[in-house]
């Protein structure tokens, strides 16, 4: 019997999902992405090389694994071609190994233009998006004026749908001299890409069912993190997709029983890029230290990531909504030099102590974390592969997290490379 495992981020993204998926891909036959788009940036260090993936599932690095992009993804075809080319430069071919749902909506150049325009219009109240056109593309999908992969097979329909789009969204396009709003150019460019992309079109739902029936191991790769989920995250400072397990069901066309195990990726501290409340944020030297030691700069945009202590209130929420059974705790080594380490165990909202997320995420701006202090281990955990070899305080820290989240330790990452990992 094959097994289907889903890997989801439990914080605000960049937890190290790429590394975890790459590791687990070793035992998988198939890897699929179900939501998000080129806003994601998944880094993998393997075989002495660094790979950065935005759209293509991290399984592509492993020879012979088959990768799928589901209908829940918003796919920028131009970014995909760039990614395919970059992989080719690193001697990785996607030919015959990468398939895309016919129902996947495409991120068009005008979506990126709209993303930039909207962020400018919001002024100081911006979301701090990645400007990859994600929100506008999902908006068009829900508005039923999106362009889908299958449209690439029907040029006349594609042209008509682009024209309908222009009519419906004319306020963004009228008088614009920006190339990104030029429908004729977009049509021509898409027709140039079509011969490369259309052979990848498939029915992902059917393909996954077939793999399951054949007893294959399947890995589902989440992007972003639970706190960026459009419904269950810190709205409106979220992304525009369901980053949690529910997103995998609709984003791939699978049922709830198709998932055997949920692995939640948790960074040993917290980071966030873009705007929005962040209760445990550190705006002091410790925060800077975490950023520098952790290399906390956005993979997609290069922006410095905001840093802070681990937040168990947010994590309890993330683990519940995903039904996380196993934890993959990453970047433990980044805490090595700290004298003491704090973990938020509750929130204090004007004197009321809360162990769960407030009903309204806006309250996150106004509350104070209640911390539990841990003594730092002050020694290197870098590259340790055996749990028993960890300093006592580090073991206590990990056991405490696992106990509080009621989830088993599945793996602990002690460095960016594939082999710098403790597996249980
Ligand atoms: P993702 O978006 O969740 O895949 O995470 P990113 O790739 O955006 O960010 C995680 C960063 O941390 C990457 O640069 C990884 O190479 C790196 N990383 C992953 N695990 C570890 C670890 O255990 N220790 C250290 N020091 N770096 C890690
Ligand atoms: P991975 O998969 C961290 C954040 C953006 C912004 C908000 C909305 O690498 O973990 P969007 O462009 O999606 O409309 O931006 O979401 N964001 C991420 N933060 N990691 C990511 O992906 C992110 N994808 C989007 O910074 O705050
Ligand atoms: Mg990332």
Structure, described:
It is a single chain. 31% of the residues lie in helices and 21% in strands. It is an alpha/beta fold. It has a ten-stranded mixed β-sheet with strand order 9-7-5-2-10-1-11-15-19-20, sandwiched between helices. Strands 14, 16, 17 and 18 form a four-stranded mixed β-sheet that branches. The chain has a two-stranded antiparallel ribbon with strand order 3-4. A hairpin with a 2-residue loop joins strand 16 and strand 17. The protein is globular. The two termini are 21 Å apart. Bound molecules: guanosine-5'-diphosphate, 6-O-phosphoryl inosine monophosphate and magnesium ion. Residues 9, 13-19, 41-43, 45, 295, 299, 330-331, 333-334, 413-416 line the site of guanosine-5'-diphosphate (GDP).
List the SSEs and their pairings:
Blueprint: E1 4-9, H1 17-25, E2 30-33, E3 42-46, E4 49-53, E5 66-69, E6 74-75, H2 77-89, E7 98-101, E8 105-106, H3 109-122, H4 134-142, H5 155-168, H6 170-173, H7 183-197, E9 201-202, H8 204-213, E10 218-221, H9 245-252, E11 261-267, E12 270-272, H10 285-294, E13 306-308, E14 310-311, H11 312-322, E15 326-330, E16 340-349, E17 352-354, E18 368-375, H12 392-405, E19 408-413, E20 421-423
Parallel strand pairs: 1-10, 1-11, 2-5, 2-10, 5-7, 6-8, 7-9, 11-15, 14-16, 15-19
Antiparallel strand pairs: 3-4, 12-13, 16-17, 16-18, 19-20
Helix pairs in contact: 3-4, 5-7
The structure holds guanosine-5'-diphosphate (GDP), 6-O-phosphoryl inosine monophosphate and magnesium ion.
Please give a handful of descriptors for the protein shown.
424 residues, alpha/beta, Adenylosuccinate Synthetase, Chain A, domain 1, Adenylosuccinate Synthetase, subunit A, domain 2, Adenylosuccinate Synthetase, Chain A, domain 3, ten-stranded mixed sheet, four-stranded mixed sheet, binds guanosine-5'-diphosphate, binds 6-O-phosphoryl inosine monophosphate, binds magnesium ion
């Amino acid at each position: 019997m094959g097994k289907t495992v889903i890997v989801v981020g439990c914080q605000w993204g960049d937890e190290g999902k790429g590394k975890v998926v790459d590791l687990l891909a070793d035992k998988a036959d198939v890897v699929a992405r179900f939501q998000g788009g080129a806003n994601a940036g998944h880094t993998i260090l393997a075989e002495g090389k660094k790979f950065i993936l935005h759209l293509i599932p991290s399984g592509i690095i492993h020879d012979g694994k088959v990768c799928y992009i589901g209908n829940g993804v918003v796919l920028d075809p131009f970014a995909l071609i760039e990614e395919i080319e970059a992989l080719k430069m690193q001697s990785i071919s996607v030919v015959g190994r990468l398939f895309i749902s016919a129902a996947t909506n495409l991120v068009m150049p005008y979506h990126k233009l709209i993303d930039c325009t909207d962020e400018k219009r919001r002024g100081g109240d911006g979301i701090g998006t990645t400007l990859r056109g994600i929100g506008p593309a999902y908006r068009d999908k829900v508005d039923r004026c999106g362009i889908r992969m299958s449209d690439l097979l029907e040029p006349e329909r594609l042209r008509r749908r682009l024209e309908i789009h222009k009519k419906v969204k004319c306020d963004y396009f009228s008088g614009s001299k920006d190339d990104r709003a030029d429908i004729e150019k977009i049509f021509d460019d898409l027709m140039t890409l079509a011969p490369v992309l259309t052979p990848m079109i498939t029915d992902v739902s059917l393909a996954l069912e077939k793999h399951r029936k054949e007893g294959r191991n399947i890995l589902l790769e989440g992007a972003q993190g639970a706190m960026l989920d459009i419904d269950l995250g810190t709205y409106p400072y979220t992304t525009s997709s369901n980053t949690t397990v529910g997103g995998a069901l609709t984003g791939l066309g699978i049922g709830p029983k198709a998932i055997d195990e949920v692995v939640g990726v948790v960074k040993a501290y917290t980071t966030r890029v873009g705007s929005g409340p962040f209760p445990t944020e550190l705006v002091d030297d410790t925060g800077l230290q975490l950023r520098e030691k952790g290399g906390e700069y956005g993979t997609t945009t290069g922006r410095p990531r905001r840093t802070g202590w681990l937040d168990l209130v947010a994590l309890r929420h993330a683990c519940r909504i995903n039904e996380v059974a196993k934890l993959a705790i990453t970047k433990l080594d980044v805490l090595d030099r700290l004298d003491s380490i704090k973990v938020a165990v509750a929130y204090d909202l004007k004197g009321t102590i809360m162990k769960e997320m407030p009903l309204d995420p806006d309250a996150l701006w106004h509350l104070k974390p209640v911390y539990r202090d841990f003594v730092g281990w002050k020694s290197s955990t870098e590259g340790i592969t055996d749990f028993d070899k960890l300093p006592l305080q580090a073991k206590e820290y990990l056991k405490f997290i696992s106990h509080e989240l009621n989830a088993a330790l599945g793996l602990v990452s002690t460095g960016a490379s594939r082999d710098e990992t403790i597996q249980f």
